[in-house]
């Protein structure tokens, strides 16, 4: 087995997106670890408002991978997706009897990292899956990026 290239990671970063970080995390948790094409289908069908900016970021990260690195979009997997809280815009809304009510417009920063799964090649074939046993003693397949080590041939 020879290593074609080290793990290539391409990312896209969206800052100051006007939505709560918790609402964005609800969508991000569904797409973490999935392939690029599967992610696009999930984001198109989910009914949340947070899906559209996340869809744009995933699409932008894949465009960065294909244009800047020359990677195939079919081999991309979302290796890391995280949402951090951004700044909060604070306003006051006038209420009855001269009182005021604070309004907080929350923002978030979303980071999408894509990784190429066609890293290893063995005599003209590339392997993206690793065979291993789980606690129920049946054979399962885990993606190579989840195993954390070299691909061992059995």
TrEMBL record:
Highest taxon of source: Eukaryota
Keywords, in A-Z order: Chloroplast, Plastid, Ribonucleoprotein, Ribosomal protein, RNA-binding, rRNA-binding
GO MF annotation, one: structural constituent of ribosome
Cited PROSITE patterns: RIBOSOMAL_L22 (PS00464)
Keyword Amino-acid biosynthesis: no
Pfam families in the record: Ribosomal_L22
Cellular-component GO terms for this entry: chloroplast; large ribosomal subunit
GO BP, one annotated term: translation
Compartments in which it is found: Plastid, Chloroplast
InterPro entries given in the database record: Ribosomal_uL22, Ribosomal_uL22_bac/chlpt-type, Ribosomal_uL22_bac/org-type, Ribosomal_uL22_CS, Ribosomal_uL22_sf
Subunit structure: Part of the 50S ribosomal subunit.
PANTHER family: CHLOROPLAST 50S RIBOSOMAL PROTEIN L22-RELATED (PTHR13501), LARGE RIBOSOMAL SUBUNIT PROTEIN UL22M (PTHR13501:SF10)
Primary role: This protein binds specifically to 23S rRNA. The globular domain of the protein is located near the polypeptide exit tunnel on the outside of the subunit, while an extended beta-hairpin is found that lines the wall of the exit tunnel in the center of the 70S ribosome.
Name by which UniProt lists this protein: Large ribosomal subunit protein uL22c
Organism: Trapa maximowiczii
């Amino acid at each position: 087995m020879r290593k074609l290239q080290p793990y290539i990671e391409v990312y896209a970063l969206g800052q100051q997106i006007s939505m709560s970080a918790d609402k964005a995390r609800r969508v991000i948790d569904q797409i973490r670890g999935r392939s690029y094409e599967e992610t696009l289908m999930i984001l198109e069908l989910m009914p949340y408002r947070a899906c559209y900016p996340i869809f744009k970021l995933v699409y932008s990260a894949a465009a960065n991978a294909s244009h800047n690195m020359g990677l195939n979009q079919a081999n991309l997997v979302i290796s890391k997706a995280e949402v951090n809280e951004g700044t909060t815009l604070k306003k006051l809304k006038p209420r009855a009897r001269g009182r005021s009510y604070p309004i907080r417009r929350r923002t978030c920063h979303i980071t999408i990292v894509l990784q190429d799964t066609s890293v290893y090649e063995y005599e003209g074939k590339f392997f993206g899956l690793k065979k291993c046993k789980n606690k129920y003693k049946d054979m399962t397949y885990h993606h190579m990026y989840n195993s954390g080590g070299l691909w061992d041939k059995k």
